[in-house]
């Protein structure tokens, strides 16, 4: 291996280890409590509404789905229903 090849390999390895997408130990920005979301008070997304409706039906809990939930509330309810239905 030439010096140039070795240097390039070393540089590549350094970039790979610095890439947060490849470092599963770096959870600093992945998990945030929904009540700390800056957009948590906005209406839930269409995807959240759909998933929440599906989970509520699977849990046979007609009161679990509320179309007026905000993003943070929907996320918390989805997490609870996922646990209840064994999907977590």
UniProtKB/TrEMBL annotation:
Residues 8-36 have a biased composition (Basic and acidic residues). Residues 1-46 are annotated as: Disordered. It comes from the Bacteria. This is DUF3072 domain-containing protein.
């Amino acid at each position: 291996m030439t010096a140039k090849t070795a240097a390039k390999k070393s540089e590549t390895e350094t970039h790979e280890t610095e890439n947060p997408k490849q470092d599963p130990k770096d959870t600093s920005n992945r998990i945030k409590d929904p009540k700390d979301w800056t957009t948590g008070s906005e209406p839930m997304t269409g995807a959240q509404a759909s998933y929440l409706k599906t989970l509520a039906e699977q849990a046979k809990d007609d009161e679990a789905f509320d179309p007026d939930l905000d993003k943070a509330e929907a996320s918390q309810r989805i997490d609870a229903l996922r646990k209840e239905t064994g999907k977590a």
